[in-house]
Amino acid sequence: MFRENIITELKEKINQNPLDIENHKNLANYYIGSNDLNSAMVVYKNILEIAPNDFQSLINLGSICFYKKLYMEAIDSYKKAIAVEPDNYAAYYNIGNIYAEIENFELALENYERAIKLSPEKPEIYSALGYLYQDMDSLEQAKKFYSKAIELDPVNHEYYINIANIEQKEGNNIEALTNYEKACELCPKDEKAVLCLANSYAVIKNFDKAQKYFDKALEINPNYYSAWVCKAIAMCDNKQSQDAIELLKQAIEIEPEKPNAYILLANILVDEKRYEEALLIYKTVSQILTKDAKISAFIANTYVMLNDYEQAFRYYKKAMKQAPKDNEIKLIYIEMANSYINSKMKGK
Q: Is the pLDDT of residue 94 over 70?
């Protein structure tokens, strides 16, 4: 009722003075705050009929279109904003984000560079360039731009996470750990930063510290699926398989439609020689990933462990049908078939 009253009040003001765009903007802002982007989009289009050169409305409309993956409409809106304020970096920056999203790296780079020329003091542009070069697998360039973002905004913890992720990927574990720690220091309640720090300690086999931060991440958000899964992986690496199994079961309870925990759980059960249990889990996840050849191959492998070759052949054939170009699956199938035939010829 409260929401409807505010909307009614704002619409009455607009009816009384339809050319006053501030009332329109207030209504659009309220819709955005209520996550009603479709209604906000309509209001911004109404504003632009009254004031086609309203820069902020053009930017906001472009951002809504971008969020809704209406990329050409977003670019059109941003280009109109550039025509209104050609020296404002925001439109170029946002166009760069669109081209980065659709992996047109050349045009993304071109627009980010224009944005930097107009506003070289904006750290978010350097961070965006870092993401872009990271996606292009140019990790040293990515680190360079993340470092510049940190130089301009040393209290933004996300920038430290970004550079730490690259250090981790490059195997620079201590550098990664240092940056994750800085991110947690700046934002101790950020579950993502805390989880990254936990994983970083797990990588260097400091499982006591890792568990401390896994627990902290789960204290911040008890339903943090990734934290349950990552903690399970760390427990498994630390030869605590039973603990890992219980953690993965908890992850599945939280997010029953996500496949990762099922797959990890089934893999652990196979390692534990609990094949029947593993089969049930693999078959459950096959209902989620209905076209995944690897799941079919996992099921086939598990049937081999149970000496049920009829079912193993069935699932290998299914895997090959799902991924006809996967030579590894074909090779495993041929080797298993040859092994089975040889064993039969020997009377086993």
A: yes
- For the entire predicted model, the pTM comes to 0.84
Q: What tens digit of pLDDT does each residue of 138-175 get?
A: 999 999 999 999 999 999 999 999 999 999 999 999 99
Amino acid letter, 189: K
SS (H, E, C) the chain: CHHHHHHHHHHHHHHHCCCCHHHHHHHHHHHHHCCCHHHHHHHHHHHHHHCCCCHHHHHHHHHHHHHCCCHHHHHHHHHHHHHHCCCCHHHHHHHHHHHHHCCCHHHHHHHHHHHHHHCCCCHHHHHHHHHHHHHCCCHHHHHHHHHHHHHHCCCCHHHHHHHHHHHHHCCCHHHHHHHHHHHHHHCCCCHHHHHHHHHHHHHCCCHHHHHHHHHHHHHHCCCCHHHHHHHHHHHHHCCCHHHHHHHHHHHHHHCCCCCHHHHHHHHHHHHCCCHHHHHHHHHHHHCCCCCCHHHHHHHHHHHHHCCCHHHHHHHHHHHHHHCCCCHHHHHHHHHHHHHHHHHHHCCC
